[in-house]
Amino acid sequence: MLYYDQRKDLCEVTRMMFDRFNTNAAGGNISVKVSEKHFIMTPTLMSQAKFCRLNPEDIIVIDKNGDIYEGNGKVTREFNMHIAVFESIPDAGAVVHAHPKESMVFASLGMDLPHLTEATRKLGEIKALDFAPATSVELAERVRSYMEERKNSLPVAALLREHGILVVDRTLRKAYDMLERIEYNAYVNIHANLFRALGIYNPKEEKGNLAYNVEE
């Protein structure tokens, strides 16, 4: 089996993503660059049909043209969005697309996600992109345009209006790690706004520059 260890690891991360409510049965997909020619990718309907319980043989080995070399699964219709990322960011090693519960609030409202946690500040921004229909060429091109702007600043994340999130990093584990950081940051934002509305918390402007850790 081609890339067995990488496909097994992708199965573990995919299951973790579903079990921790970082995606839902409506979808999500992950791709990993494993060579200059090949990518491995979760199959279509991984959530709806399999609840992200995948085996290595379900993971497809594919090239940028969509030709499958191995794997029982079929290509997700969002393949074009993943390839747009890899073509825009040469150092990208993994792309995670998900529908995380807390971040979906910001994505659905088209709101950029502010940083309230130090752990996400290395992203620079978590921007909500303008709406484009799921699986469409328009969405892939919208993602491509944004990723080209950010091609020298991995990791990168973007909210897809009324759809979900994209997280890009050099490795699969790093990309998934950032997905969880963003989701916790979204949770903190929602509750902080509730505290403000209730008058429990009245933020004061910070004086001076805080020395955030953006390396770890």
From TrEMBL:
Residues 8-190 form the Class II aldolase/adducin N-terminal domain. GO terms for cellular component: cytosol. Keywords: Lyase, Metal-binding. The keyword Lyase applies. One of its GO terms (biological process) is pentose catabolic process. It holds the Pfam family Aldolase_II. GO terms for molecular function: aldehyde-lyase activity; metal ion binding. It comes from the Bacteria. This is Class II aldolase/adducin N-terminal domain-containing protein. It comes from Heyndrickxia camelliae.
